[in-house]
Design goal:
Length: about 325
């Protein structure tokens, strides 16, 4: 509640005081570093309050004042990249709630991508930056480079007991699945279940690949998996550990046209696939209806990605459907 705004104000006052000292002629390295640190702490507090636009500006001030090669600068740059991604997500959610034109996600990814590449160049073993960079590249369709960064992030995890291991390994599995390396993807998803038997997304991804698993814990605690007849399921990737929320949005302006009922025709069979196998630019599995990719999501994943149930979506006007699909890279 009140503590966060107070911290924001305290850090902002400290940054302003150091910057005032610099304007008065004190440009010693120590003063610059203190001003940079204060601006960075102010940015951290703003980001926690979801004031991403202001946080981005504060990080930019901190980076401009800091020493480029310093370890603190690498940490700031990583946090700056995450905040750029959070701001992008916030803007996309706002855009999808209106009939305004939705910008190309690749353009919005350029800034955080450049920052994450700079972090990795400065610290090749920065596992979190590798993971975030891999996710951005996965979204852009550069699956080969994404798999390379995600694989390295997995290697940098502190063993399978590391809480980060399962998510990194899962996302690596998604990347190699997009490259149609089904064997490597299957192995990755199995590894996820070995370390986290409750990882529903990995289990659903294996089911979508035709491997329905019954998971038991035999003596010794390891996971035993037996293959049973497949049934459709789906999996999804967390785009970003610090910002993975999806909200139900409503449209403003333009007035609703009569509901588009084209999808209310005779039932069709839509094999279920993970979201990452369906988002643009492809390639897509052979049995996917490219113009109706959203229908290949599981019911639960559909709500998380699109923001409404399939039944509600079916009754919406075409322009609203198209806006949601664009925002989710399913158009």
């Amino acid at each position: 509640g009140a503590a966060a705004p107070n911290k924001e104000a305290d850090h902002e006052r400290a940054a302003q005081a150091f910057e005032a000292a610099m304007r008065a002629g004190d440009r010693t390295p120590a003063t610059r570093q203190l001003a940079s640190l204060a601006s960075s702490l102010h940015a951290d507090a703003l980001a926690r309050s979801k004031r991403f636009e202001a946080a981005v500006a504060a990080y930019e001030r901190a980076l401009a004042l800091g020493e480029p090669g310093a370890a603190s600068s690498t940490t700031m740059r990583y946090n700056y990249a995450l905040t750029l991604m959070q701001r992008q997500q916030q803007q996309q959610q706002a855009s999808s709630s209106s009939s305004s034109t939705i910008r190309d996600a690749d353009d919005d990814d350029d800034a955080p991508l450049a920052q994450l590449e700079a972090v990795v160049a400065a610290d090749a073993d920065h596992a979190e930056a590798r993971h975030a960079l891999g996710l951005l590249l996965l979204r852009r369709g550069d699956y080969e480079t994404a798999a390379s960064h995600l694989g390295r992030a997995v290697d940098l995890a502190d063993g399978v007991e590391d809480p980060a291991y399962a998510e990194r390994r899962y996302n690596y599995g998604v990347a190699v699945l997009k490259l149609r390396r089904t064997g490597a993807a299957t192995a990755a998803f199995r590894d996820v279940l070995t370390s986290r038997p409750d990882h529903a997304q990995a289990a659903e991804a294996l089911t979508a690949l035709g491997v329905s698993l019954s998971v038991d814990k035999p003596p010794g605690g390891r996971v035993a998996m037996t293959t049973t007849p497949p049934r459709p399921a789906a999996a999804a990737v967390s785009p970003h550990a610090a910002a993975t929320t999806t909200t139900t949005t409503t449209s403003s302006g333009g007035g609703d046209a009569p509901p588009d009922t084209t999808s209310a025709a005779a039932p069709r069979h839509y094999p279920i696939y993970p979201y990452e196998a369906l988002r643009a630019p492809g390639p897509f599995p052979d049995d996917v209806r490219v113009g109706e990719r959203e229908m290949h999501l599981s019911d639960e994943e559909f709500v998380r990605v699109i923001g409404v149930t399939k039944d509600v979506f079916a009754q919406q006007p075409k322009w609203k459907k198209d806006a949601k699909k664009r925002a989710s890279q399913l158009f």
